[in-house]
Amino acid sequence: MKINSITIAFPFKPYPAQILTCSKIIDCLKNKKTGIIESPTGTGKSIAILCAVLAWHAHNRDTRIFICSRTHKQLDQLVAQLRSTVYTPKVCVLASRRVLCLNRNALKGDVNSTCRELVKKGECRYFMGKERLVKSIGDVHDIEELRQMGEKCTGCPYYASRMLSESATITFMPYNYVVDPMVRHTMGIELKNSVVIVDEAHNIEDACRSAGSIELTNNTIDIMLKELVSAYRRAEEYKEDLMVLNFFLRKMRDVSDVKMTRSNLENECACFKGDEIVQLLTHKQVVPELIAKMRMNALFKKNEELKDAFSLMFLQTIESLVSVLMLIFSGKAPSYALIVGGAPGIPTINFMLLDPDVMFNAVVQHVHALVVLSGTLTPFSAVENELNHRFAYSLVAPAVAQHTFCATILKNTRTGADMLGTYAHAESFEYVDEVIDVIYGVSESVQGGGTVVFLPSYHAVNKVFGRMRMRSTGSEAGMRAGAVFGNKAWVNKMRTDTTNKSIGMNKNPFFTRKMANHSVNNRIENVFIETNDKSFDKTFAAYKKHHNPILLAVYRGKASEGTDFKDRLARAVILIGMPCPNIKEVSVELMRNHRPGWYENQIFKAVNQAIGRCVRHRLDWGGVFLVDVRYRRDKERLCGWCRDRMVYGEYFGDVVEDFRGFVRKMKEMDRGRNEVKNGNEVKDGNEVKDGNEVKDGNEVKDGVKYGNEVKYGNENRDGVKYGNEVKDGNEVKDGNDEGSENRYRSNNNQKENEKDVKVVNAYNYTEHGTNTGNENDSNTVKKKNNGKYEGISRAVEEEIGKFARDGVKDEEENDVIELGYKHRRINGTKDEDVMGDDEEGVKRARVDERSKYHD
C-alpha cells in the first residue's frame, strides 16, 4: 500500500486509524517536523509506527531510528510487534545494568559500582564474552532473549547491547535515555539527524522535568566528601582538581543552611525561584567561575585514572549537579525552583525543573524528526503548553469500533445523593458503602468477566477492602451495611426470622435478589487488591484465574499502565473519585502556582490512563464508569475517543440495567462470531471472512490458503514460521537456535525437492523445517513438542501431492508413515493433535485429512 508516495508493507489489511497514523508519521519524517498523535487502544498503533518508519527508512538508510517507550515491558511488546511484519532491521534494546546484568556477584550489591570494579579487575567472565554475544544474537531480539543468549554463550547483555547500538537500524530504549543528557552521554547516544519516536508519551513532560532536576541530601554530600578524601590519597597528582571538588561540595552543603520559611506543608522547607536561586548560590560562593572550573576539572575530561578513584554514584551526581547549575547560570534560572528542607532530620537541597521544555526542546533542535504518540494525549493544547512547543502535525485517530464501548458518568447511587469523592466525604462509611454497592452492582452485570476499580490512594483501597470484609462477616456494622446486596449474615437472619416467613418476606423480589447475590458479591474471595510493593504480578496472575474477579487498584499504579486487561479481564472499569495530587507537597504547590492548568492536567492524565485499561483490541468490549459528579464539569479534559461516547447516568439502578443490556448484546455478538460459516470454524472471536482468518483482531488478507498457517498476521508459506526462513525451498534459519542454521539439501535433484517441499507445506508445517527424504534420511528435521516428535516423510509428501493433484482417492494405508505428525485442519482455525505413535492414530489422521475435501 502506498501512503504519501511511500510503499508500506502491512502484515494485514490496515485499519483506517493505522493509515492515518502512518500518513502523519511519514509527513513528519519527509518534512523534518514534529508530530503528536493520539491513537486509541486497539487501533494497531505499534504496527503503524514500525511499518511507517521502516518503509521510510528504506529510502533513507543513513538515518538512525530511536523508538522509545516508558517501560521495558512496553519495549518488549514493540519488538514482538516488529516480528509480525516483513521488515527485518538490525535491532538493539538498551537497558540498565540492573535489568541486563547476569553476574550474580554484581547483583548482590550496588550493581553499577560492582560491575565497574569487576570489569576493571578482569574478573567478569560475561564481560570477556560480550563480542561472542554480539555475534550470536539474532537481528530482532528483546531483553529476555538477549539475557538468555548471554547465559548460553557467557556474554554480557549490557555491554553487548551498547556495541549493537553502534550499527543498529532501530534502537529501542526507555525515553529517559533520550531526554536526559547525562544518560545520552553515558550510553553514547547521538541524536543528530536521527528519527525519534516516543510511544506512550503521556508522561513525556514528567520525564523531561525529572531529567533536568536533582535532589541531594546532606548525608549524600557527606558520603561524597569521605570518598573524596579516600581518592586524594590514591591520586595525589590531581591535587588541584580534587581541591576544587572539595570546595564545591562543601559550598553545596552550606546551601542547605537556610532558615525554613514554610511550615504549612508536610515538611518544613524554604523555596527559592529564578533570581532568588542565583542570589542564594552567589551568597554561598557557588558562582559561575566555580562551575567553569568544575567543567575544566580532569574528572570531566574522560581521565580514566581519576575516574577509577570514584564510585559511579559520585561521578553521576557530580555531573548531574554541574549540568543543572550550568543551566541556571546560563539564563534558565526562571525555569527552576530550589527547595531546601525535607523530612525532619534529613536536610535536602532539590533543584527542581519547573519547565520541561528546557529538556524537550534541546532534543528537538538536534533530531531529523520527532513524533510523540499515546492513546491518551488530548487535549493537545495541554501537552503543547507544558512543552512550550507547537507540533507541526497532529492527529486524533478514530477508534476501531465504538459500538463495543460504553462510558457513563454516574451522578448518584441508590440513595439519590451526589457521589462526591472529596476528602471530607470519602472518609465516611456512608460514602464507602455507596462505592461498594456500585462495584458489586457493576460486577454482577459482567458474570464471567473482570471488574477493575481505580481509587485515589492505597489508603482508599484498604478502606474499601476492609469495609467489604466487614460486610462479608456477621459484624453488627456489616449487617447494617449493603442495603442493595446485603451480606451473608444479614440474609440468613432474614431468611430464618419467623415474622419474615409469616409475611412472605423471604419471597419478596428484593429479598430474593439479595439471596441470589450474597454468595457471589459478599464473599471477598474474588476481590484482589493492588499493594504498594513488588507483588502485583502474583496478584494479577491470581486475578486472571478467577471467573468473576474484582481488582481494587490505584490511579498511577502498576495496574493503570503497562498491564493488558484484554477481553474478559476488564469488562468493566470503574473510576472512583479523582486522583488529585497532594496539595501539601511543596513540589505540587510550586507547579500549581507556576503553570495554570497543570494541576487539572495531572488529574486527567491519570484518569485517561485508567480508562485505557478497557477495550484493548478491535473485538474487545467493555464499559467505563466515572463515579464522581465532578467529572461532569470537566468532561472536555477526557481523552477524545472516550469523551465522544460519554453519557450522563442520573440513577444507579438505571445505569446498571442499561449496562446489563449492553453486556447481553456484546455476549450475543461474541456467540455470533463463534460459529461455523461456509465450512470455516470461527472460535474465540476470530472471524473468517471469504476464507480470510482474523486473529487477535488482525485481519489477514490472504487468509488460510492451502494449509498455510496464518499467525500474528503472517501467512506461513513454504515452511516460514516464527522467523524460520526457507530460501529456495532449501535453507531453514532459526533465529532462536543459538544463531545456528538448520540446513537440508538434496544433492541429486534440487528442483524436484523444492517442488515436493512446497506441496508438503501446502498442507502441513513443522516448527523447524520440512523433511525432504525418507524416514531414515539423516536430513530429517525434527522438533520435540510436548514429548512427541513432529516430522514429515517422503511417503507423506507423495501422498499429499496426490491429494493436491488428483483429489481424494482410496490409497493404501501402508503408505503413511508410522511417525506421528501434527495435523492442521484447513477448514478452520483449530489446531488439533492427532497421531500418537500408534497406527490407529495415523489412520484417524488420514481419514480426517480426507474428509474435509468432501465438505
From TrEMBL:
Polar residues compositional bias, start-end: 766-779
Gene3D superfamilies to which the protein is assigned, alphabetical: P-loop containing nucleotide triphosphate hydrolases
GO cellular component: nucleus
Class of enzymatic activity (EC top level): isomerase
GO BP annotation list: double-strand break repair involved in meiotic recombination; nucleotide-excision repair
One GO MF term attached to the UniProt entry: ATP binding
Chain intervals with Basic and acidic residues compositional bias: 672-704, 712-744, 841-855
Residue ranges annotated for the Helicase ATP-binding domain, each copy included: 4-259
UniProt keyword list: ATP-binding, Helicase, Hydrolase, Iron, Iron-sulfur, Isomerase, Metal-binding, Nucleotide-binding
Disordered: region residues: 672-758, 766-785, 826-855
PROSITE patterns: DEAH_ATP_HELICASE, HELICASE_ATP_BIND_2
Name of the protein this chain belongs to: DNA 5'-3' helicase
Lineage, highest ranks first: Eukaryota, Fungi, Fungi incertae sedis, Microsporidia, Pleistophoridae
A Pfam family annotated for this UniProt entry: Helicase_C_2
